[in-house]
Amino acid sequence: MKLSFTRYHLHCFHPFGISRNTHESYTEIFVYLEQEGILGRGEASPSERYGESADLILSKLEKGIKFPEVPLSPQKFEANVLPQCNGIKAMEMAFSMAYLDWWTQKEGMAMKNFFGIDDKKGPQTSFTIAIGNINLIPQKVKEAEPYNILKVKLGTDHDYEIINAIRAETDKVIRVDANEGWNLETAVEMCKWLADKNVEYVEQPLPAENVAETAELKNKSPIPLFADENCIIPDNIPEIAHAFDGINIKLMKCGSMLKAKEMIEMARELDLSIMLGCMIESSIGITAAAHLSPLVDHADLDGHLLIDNDPYIGVRIEDGRVVIPDGLGLGIELDSDQPGLK
Fold this sequence. Notes:
alpha/beta; Enolase-like, domain 1; TIM Barrel; 2 domains; 8-stranded parallel sheet; 3-stranded antiparallel sheet; 12 helices; 31% helix
């Protein structure tokens, strides 16, 4: 199997701010696997929150990856190849995604069919209003007009002002994401204040290490709580189920399409609500998540909508809902003539 890869910079329409940092661009690594005339595509979107970077991934890729001599099932491929990624989850996901794209094309099926899914449509996706210049909120709300749900990043010294500015423009449903930006006292106060602001839930209100305090908050909050930074791999789910009402599964955190499906099944068994989320990603990563979206309750799959140079075409949003593309595998098409992209 032939491996190739390239670095690509995604540029945001607006600086993308969360409680920890702000970025105007994000560096992706696109991974390509080719054999028998079939091309499988994958994407790594590393997060500094988890100690990952594009440079670290490139250094591992340049040292070489050993592939099985003959094509294996996706399960066996992951068992052979992913340990070579040294625990870098975004890199693991790039290989998981690319191989499953290749394998399902070879088998003549769409990726969603591999997971036993026939429906083309997932839930409505939220559209993110990140932390930034508060004077731009009217413009950002207008840009979000095609979407029925807003995801609003908080965890600042002016959270009340942000929500009030948005509420001056629209009464759409809001999902708040504090990205670990509050302490317990602030979180209790904010959740009670947000309760009559048409807020559906609050994501990751407290730092991930504060699970006991999050459980206390859950007992006091009139709004459901969803785990993001607390929920990375399947093993995390039973450890935090008592402290949250739902979980946010991100492909780039869990490192495997197969593990993402496992996390959905575990969450169902524990009666947790399920959201599929994303980083700032191209249509490769977002489309891969979309293939699982009919299995979940909520979607935040807008990473490709927040950039101005997506080099691929895949998942569509129709009437606010995630729509899986037709075609075999991921169903991705290249929409760029930049050298190195496939």
